Amino acid sequence: MEWETKGSRRRQQLAAQIPDEWKLPVPFQSDSLVNVKGIPAESGILGPLDIEITESSADEILANVRKSQWSCERVMLAFCKRATIAHQLVNCVTNFLIEEALETAREHDKYLADTGQVRGPLHGLPISVKDCLDVAGHETTSGLVSRIGFVAKEDALVIRCLRQAGAIPFVKTNLAQATLLVESTNNVFGLVTNPSNRQLTAGGSSGGEGALIALFGSPLGVCTDGGGSVRLPASWNGVYGFKPSATRIPSLGSRGVGYSDSNLGCTGVIANHIETLSLFMSSALSACPWNNDADCVPIPWNSRIGISRKLRLGLLFDDGITHLTPPVLRVLKESQEKLAAAGHDVIVLDWSDLHLRGARIIFTMYTQEGGVGVREALDISGEPPVPRLATGWSERPLTPIEIWKNHRARKQLRLDYLRRWKQLDLDAIITAPSPHPAPPHEQYITTALSAIYNLLDYPCCIVPAGEVNLEKDVADEAWYARAPYDKIPNFPYDFGDEELKSLYKGPEVFANSPLALQIVGLPWQEELCLLISQRIDDIIHHR
């Protein structure tokens, strides 16, 4: 079929972008390899300096560039090499911008040599970009066959801001079809796999970013989040991620589908180091994007905010939609013990009533247009939806009155959630981003734990917290014997608590899967959310 031919041709073009000298030796190409995180350093393609550069934090890279210890070109070369290796292992890239990125890096080096100054706080830093965000002169597919050959005329505004700060885009990354899936797969570029266990999902819709960064193929990845698309890939790949409030970072130049403007999707970031999340926020906002995007709020980054006192932290174990699986429950309890031992107040929250209301509201919003927009996008090429695409297909679109009633319910929930937060005088909430670790492909259960914070428009930070333990994470009889929660019926691609029990046959199903915490703050308080997240990160990792 024509759509299959177009997809196959595009994959061939992508493969041809990888130089022969960067292609993996045959022993590393075997599909039998499960955990591939060590292969980039073992492949023989990277030299010692390549490894040192790519495994350094963004702050360390920038410091070495400013001191002329490393040139921008040398840094870029190292990441280009490592990104091609990562792609060969987990299929995480949609476009390599190697020659353009190296040329830009050389221009940055010349500027520093000529002036003694850097172009901005991100001078020479390679950045990866999710393939729904425009990069001038390059294709933006959003994982759709119909958008093959759609070349952006200008950068998405966030990319323009980061370029102004000195960053250099060098790859675009794989994603879910139409960005509407918790599995990063599409009919153009195929499936992204998890570097810790290629039998597991890398998450979605920003799975290419999560997998690439887990393999140290990029120091900073720019991506989007409409229901967990930053947070689930970050948590399931063992890296850091941040979802700000919806209009704090500009979304102009992000290519989605559909007509609904109800869901508060946003532009976010994934990185290997928590400090990089704040670096992204401060650098993007230093360009005053609100002058070019009417939806972007005019709130500059405030680096003077601090919090040194004892924290009051809410801990949410139960959202009334799914019970947490043993490994997810374990890391929450371990974190609770460490935070309490460090002197912080940790209050267990019984807020399942609010979360049940939130899930019904957000899942209704996801389906309110009846799938019209995504069907149109697929019909252009004739391609089919991939399994479990969040089409929102239903019998009919909602009427305007039904949509307005749901919006009113959202407004009331936001008020009730805030009141309960303030009654307890909380600084942040800690919960899981998902009830289970990274699952086998196509077997994720629900986005309820992440999507509610899009509905509420609360900033969230993902902090890695270990991995599945084959001895500690065996479920007891009581876990299987419990009565499952009733399934929320109005979201056609999510599963429920009964399916979760069937999925969790034991920890070996999720072998090597990373685990994470989701740290939640109040709207427009991104600075505080990240500061608290960094303190929690230090405590749980004994720094």
Automatic annotation (TrEMBL):
UniProt xrefs under Pfam families: Amidase
Keywords on record: Hydrolase
SUPFAM superfamilies: Amidase signature (AS) enzymes
Residue ranges annotated for the Amidase domain, each copy included: 75-530
InterPro entries linked: Amidase_dom (IPR023631), AS_sf (IPR036928)
Active site: K130 (charge relay system), S205 (charge relay system), S229 (acyl-ester intermediate)
Gene3D superfamilies reported in the protein's UniProt record: Amidase signature (AS) domain (3.90.1300.10)
GO-annotated molecular function: hydrolase activity
Superkingdom of origin: Eukaryota
Family note: Belongs to the amidase family.
Protein name (database record): Amidase domain-containing protein
